[in-house]
Amino acid sequence: PEPDRYAVFGHPIGHSRSPQIHRLFAEQTGEALVYTAQDVPPECFATALRVFRAGGGAGLNCTVPLKEQAFEAAQVLSDRARLSGAVNTLWWDRDDVLHGDNTDGVGLVRDLTVNLEVALTGKRVLLLGAGGSARGVLGPLLAERPEAIVIANRTVSRAEELARRFAALGQVAACGFAALEGCRFDVVINATSTSLQGELPPLPDDLLAPGAVCYDLMYADVPTAFVRWGLDHGAGLSVDGLGMLVEQAAEAFRIWRGVRPQTAPVIACLRR
Ligand code: NDP
């Protein structure tokens, strides 16, 4: 039989590491599948989805800027996808019903708590940014029962809206960057897109509690601007989001194939 077909849709998609990650998962688990990357501009999403399914597609990942459209397209949503308003994992069931989930948040929490052995319970957590990825990771972060999460964003109203949306799940507050003066955090997560331009949100020099952890959702072959900021400001650990990328992929793979691949060897392979 033909191997099942999967893909990642995004725009741009040129540098996606997802095909390599899923190929390594497939080799490791002995699953027969093909996984490709497709550049899909937002206005082509509906058509690309139809064409992919008609060609035997079994499931998809969606990345920037398509996660909200994937959310709209899904006929059945997981609780965490509904809460985040964004979908990064789609699949069709036997009855051709399209399901949507969001594995970004569990990917981040798994990388932090399992791979890096950073406990979040009882910690003071700062989340920088209030865009799509911040929304995707808040629910799973709050499920770890931190003491509190502060969302700091350039546009304060967006942070406030997020804090309201997630208020029922734990202690969440919102502010602008200037209000961080004098505050200390155990874990600082960068979910802004500033690292993409090699920039940083304006952060006070004494933001980190002793031994604090800095985590940049962005990843790169060289340390990102935020990873470097953490190292320069006394972080005990300052890492990029490659582990999260592999973990969110592993969760998607588990949903699609019913088997969870081991992530550590894949992360090690990508770091090389
Ligand atoms: P969005 O465009 O939805 O949000 C961007 C965020 O960055 C907003 O909070 C925005 O603030 C802020 N921002 C942008 N420019 C600046 C600036 N110059 N100064 C201060 N704040 C700024 O992006 P996403 O949430 O989708 O993605 C964010 C990052 O996360 C990307 O780098 C992406 O690559 C990464 N990512 C990594 C994943 C992984 O698996 N490792 C998974 C998902 C995302 P404002 O609201 O004021 O505009």
Kindly report the name of the CATH homologous superfamily of the largest domain. NAD(P)-binding Rossmann-like Domain
Bound molecules: NADPH dihydro-nicotinamide-adenine-dinucleotide phosphate
Mean model confidence by pLDDT: 96
Radius of gyration: 18 Å
Q: List the strand order in the largest sheet.
A: 2-1-3-5-6-4
Q: Which CATH architecture of the largest domain?
A: 3-Layer(aba) Sandwich
Question: What general form does the structure show?
Answer: globular
* Number of H/I helices: 10
- Compute the separation of the termini in Å: 34 Å
Helix content: 25-40%
Q: Find the structural class using helix and strand composition.
A: alpha/beta
Uncertain stretches: none
Strands, count? 12
- Examine the coordinates and then state which fold CATH places here, giving the name of the CATH topology of the largest domain: Rossmann fold
- What fraction of residues sit in β-strands? 15-25%
Reading the helices and strands in chain order gives EHEHEHEHEEHEHEHEEEHEHH
Largest sheet: 6 strands, mixed
**What is the CATH class name of the largest domain?**
Alpha Beta
Catalytic activity: shikimate + NADP(+) = 3-dehydroshikimate + NADPH + H(+)
EC number: 1.1.1.25
Enzyme class: oxidoreductase
Family: Belongs to the shikimate dehydrogenase family.
Describe the structure.
The chain has 272 residues and is of the alpha/beta class. The protein folds into two domains: 4-102 and 244-271, 3-Layer(aba) Sandwich (Rossmann fold), CATH 3.40.50.10860; 105-240, Rossmann fold (3-Layer(aba) Sandwich), CATH 3.40.50.720. Helix content is 38%, strand content 23%. It is built from ten helices and twelve strands. It has helices at 18-29, 45-54, 67-73, 79-84, 104-115, 132-143, 156-166, 225-232, 242-257, 264-271, and strands at residues 4-10, 33-39, 57-62, 76-77, 89-92, 98-101, 124-128, 148-152, 172-175, 185-190, 208-216, 237-239. It has a six-stranded mixed β-sheet with strand order 2-1-3-5-6-4, sandwiched between helices. Helix 1 (18-29) packs across helix 9, helix 5 (104-115) crosses helix 6 (132-143) and helix 5 crosses helix 9. The chain is globular. Involved in the biosynthesis of the chorismate, which leads to the biosynthesis of aromatic amino acids. Catalyzes the reversible NADPH linked reduction of 3-dehydroshikimate (DHSA) to yield shikimate (SA). Residues 241-267 form the SDH C-terminal domain. NADP(+) binds at residues 79, 129-133, 153-158, 217, 241. Belongs to the shikimate dehydrogenase family. The active site is at 67 (proton acceptor).
